[in-house]
Amino acid sequence: MKFNKQLFSACFLFAAAFAPTEAAEPVPEEFGSCTVCHGVQLKGNPGTGAPRLSGLQTWYVENQLESFRMGWRGNHSADYTAEEMRAVASGLSAKQLKKAPSYVNETVSSLSFTHTDGDVDKGKALFASCSACHGATGGGNEALAAPSLLVQSDWYLEKQINDFRNGLRGAEKDDASGQLMAASVATLKTDDDINNLMAYIVHLQQQEMK
Ligand code: HEC
Ligand code: HEC
């Protein structure tokens, strides 16, 4: 067949248009299953309820896998997504448990935003109580086991805040860090509070990306 330059460039353009914007790194075999729910490059998938994992702090991932395995998280039939992750965490091998925190931390994906309304200034006032543990700009504090709020998707942060408020997370007696956080959401009285707080957290995330 004669080389057809036009056809070649058409194919090239087609491929470029549909190429993923983030080059997917090959997934290590032992973590292939994570991407099924957590999405390509672990960027999160609101459809499965599985959050973004890329960039999470290693110690936080370690804590959370333990929390699921101990049944501190995923212990309520009203929270079926957490139940799903609890089942996954319980089935992990020693090798997977050891390697998961750094694998997760090192994957790269961009943070996207779904939150659209809320009053940033009112949210900022509410955030004053959070900053004691999560840091003035939300970067987290390992000594207090409080994670960064800058690397996680807004829809998931909001679900977790409501889970803490509704006793679905942080309610088990041996879960010291979870309890610490659960006690801290008592300052949030209404859904408007949550909405305004989320607007401010998204604002902090967008500042961080600048
Ligand atoms: C069957 C789907 C599914 C699979 C497979 C899965 N996860 Fe999850 N994972 C979830 C869901 C859903 C949540 C959110 C739970 C909630 O709503 O509280 C979650 C939450 C997490 C969290 C907590 C994140 C946070 O910020 O609170 C970590 C860490 C995690 N998963 C790690 C992994 C790893 C590592 C793998 C692969 C070994 C994996 N998951 C496989 C569904 C899954
Ligand atoms: C007394 C310390 C403390 C305060 C104050 C506090 N938190 Fe936390 N927060 C924590 C700890 C510790 C965790 C981790 C809990 C765990 O390990 O399950 C956490 C977890 C979270 C999570 C879950 C993140 C994820 O990826 O799963 C969210 C969201 C959160 N905090 C938001 C807030 C907000 C918003 C405020 C202010 C209203 C706040 N926190 C105040 C200590 C605190």
Automatic annotation (TrEMBL):
It comes from Pseudomaricurvus hydrocarbonicus. Residues 1-108, 118-205 form the Cytochrome c domain. SUPFAM superfamilies: Cytochrome c. Gene3D superfamilies: Cytochrome c-like domain (1.10.760.10). Pfam families: Cytochrom_C (PF00034). This is C-type cytochrome. Keywords: Electron transport, Heme, Iron, Metal-binding, Signal, Transport. Residues 1-23 form the signal peptide. GO terms for molecular function: electron transfer activity; heme binding; metal ion binding. The lineage of its organism: Bacteria, Pseudomonadati, Pseudomonadota, Gammaproteobacteria, Cellvibrionales. It comes from the Bacteria. The keyword Lipid metabolism does not apply.
